Amino acid sequence: MGWRNRKGNPVHGWFIVDKPEGVTSTRTVAILKRLSNAQKAGHGGTLDPLATGILPIAMGEATKTIPYVIDNKKEYEFTVRWGVSTSTDDREGEVISTSDKRPDRAMIEGVISSFTGVIEQVPPSFSAIKVAGKRAYDLARKGEDVALSAREIKIHDLSLVKIIDDEHAVFQVVSGAGAYMRSLARDLAVALGTVGHLIKLRRTRVGPFSLDTSISLDELQGFGHIAAVLECLLPIETALDDIPALALTGTEAIQLRQGQSVSLFRKGDLERVAVLGEGDTVLATDHGKPVALAEYCAGEVRPFRVLNL
């Protein structure tokens, strides 16, 4: 029986792209997959087309580590326009209401603290959240009323960067997973007795990935050959910098790769596991090369994501 090569090469690691405005996250992934001739790719957290900034793109086995990136802290800078609300909570929607009220610095600084910590947030109706199996934005585009439930999110820090003029203010935010900046802009305006929408959004950090480690899509497209593109690839483990690494012996690595647990009860093992707590996730490595994500439990390391590198 014949077999077919999967299209592309086995490319593993992360591209940290500074996404330009006007391109979808899905399209950016497709471009990187083509530029690196990779078999498999995915992204670590969607950015809307109007947003710019950090879009981590996982190639090959790095796709298995995407949840650790998505669940990490994210940093943004966004600009709100006061006095106008839109159907999408950003500048791409239709105007649905207006207000003559404009907040001043004292008013803005007075409400900021009520938007930090764990807060309830209703996602925008134009979002990828599923309602009865369908994407909210598909229903909203058809003119259907989309009633999304409020959910708990965490805002670690929110600050006013500058007031551009009566109509516009710039904010900086550090948030947990699942927070929508469009909703934050909308809700800030309402708390200030007006309406508003987001007109500019830039993501400056996702977990360990910042603008310092990023490369623009234009630059990547300008290289012209795969070798130069692949030089910008970061190792898989850069996404897992806050997960403790556990060095394995060759025999242990073989066991884990086969999906078997490794017992660490011997006297010499105690030093290796001294920093681990029950139920901790560890990155098992063999000569510095990632082998698997595993759970440390009852003196054993049990693999739950084997990385085939």
Kindly state the mean pLDDT as a whole number? 89
- The tally of structural domains comes to 3
Main β-sheet description: 10 strands, mixed
Distance between the termini: 26 Å
From the alpha carbons, calculate the radius of gyration and give it in angstroms: 23 Å
CATH topology of the largest domain: Pseudouridine synthase
The succession of helices and strands, N to C, reads EHEEHEEEHEEEHEEHEEEHHEHEHEEE
Oligomer: single chain
Q: Give the class-level CATH name of the largest domain.
A: Alpha Beta
What percent of the residues sit in helical stretches (DSSP H or I)? 10-25%
The geometry reads as: globular
- Tally of DSSP β-strands: 19
Q: What percent of residues are in strands?
A: 25-35%
Structural class: alpha+beta
Q: Total helix count?
A: 9
What do you see in this structure?
By secondary structure, the protein is of the alpha+beta class. It has three domains: 91 residues, Pseudouridine synthase; 126 residues, 2-Layer Sandwich (Pseudouridine synthase); 64 residues, PUA domain (Archaeosine Trna-guanine Transglycosylase, Chain: A, domain 4), CATH 2.30.130. It contains nine helices and 19 strands. Strands 1, 2, 3, 4, 7, 10, 11, 12, 13 and 14 form a ten-stranded mixed beta sheet that branches. The protein has a five-stranded mixed beta sheet with strand order 15-17-18-19-16. Strand 12 and strand 13 form a beta hairpin. It is globular and about 70 Å long. The N terminus is likely disordered.
Quick tags:
309 residues; alpha+beta; Pseudouridine synthase; Archaeosine Trna-guanine Transglycosylase, Chain: A, domain 4; 3 domains; ten-stranded mixed beta sheet; five-stranded mixed beta sheet; 9 helices; 19 strands; disordered N terminus
